[in-house]
Amino acid sequence: MTGVLFVCLGNICRSPMVESIFRVLVMREGLSDRIAADSAGTGDYQVGQPPDPRAIWVARRHGYELAERVARQVGEDDFRRFDWILAMDRHNLETLRALQPREYTGHLGLFLDFAPEVGVRDIPDPYRGSMSDFERVVDFAERGAPPLLAVIRENLAQTK
Fold this sequence. Notes:
CATH superfamily: Response regulator
Largest sheet: 4 strands, parallel
């Protein structure tokens, strides 16, 4: 089983939205038995909270359901459990690199690096923004998830 972890700051907006959209794509492609997805935050101040109501509403409007979940913080164990750890922005990537154990051999990077045609590398945090900012997260996720899945699928084929 290949594990993919999406990471933002609080784990109540971007990362659970991207996780949900990626999960739907994995399910549609019939790969749920080979690819598992989760999300977490680098910060601890929203641990235990459900996703932001605006994230739930916008995701649902686009046909996605955010998993019954509560925010959690990235831990050392995540570097053992996940082959792919993808940050939503460079700030969170820097935090993850500081936490990364030397022995981690998986992929640690930015989610949008898999979709360079988008023209940006960071998904802006919509938390203090408007509903249109949450809509942009869905757009970025829908554009980044297919090329990410293609790379993971190729990697799975090579390791058979």
